[in-house]
Amino acid sequence: MLTAWATGHWRQHELGLWQTLWEELRPGEVLLGDRGFGVWAVLAQCLERGIHGVFRSRRKLDFRQGQRLSRHERLVSWP
Q1: Residue 55 belongs to what H/E stretch?
Q2: Average pLDDT, whole number, for the chain?
């Protein structure tokens, strides 16, 4: 369901637009984003606001670590 949106210049990064939409999410809700959202700043803001974040990682991961969920998925915690 679409509840809010932001528009900007075609060269403007999504994260800048996203910052205007934080107030639309409530604690316990889920923010689903592409790998542009998988940065420490967005994760820290999610934790601070009680929002769950699901993103593709931009980090190099060692797939021998973490919990295997399926052939191509792992659950990895970042300390």
Answers
A1: strand 52-55
A2: 82
pTM to 2 decimals?
A: 0.62
Using DSSP, state whether 66 is helix, strand or coil: coil
Would you say residue 1 has pLDDT above 80? Answer: no
Residue 26, C-beta contacts closer than 8 angstroms, at least 6 positions apart: 51
Tens digit of each residue's pLDDT (9 = 90 or more) over 40-72: 888 889 999 999 988 876 667 676 788 888 887
CB atoms within 10 A of CB 31: 20
42's CB contacts (< 8 A; 6+ apart) are 15, 18, 31, 33, 53, 55
Rounded (5°) CA angle 25-21-55: 70
Partners of residue 31 on adjacent β-strands: 53
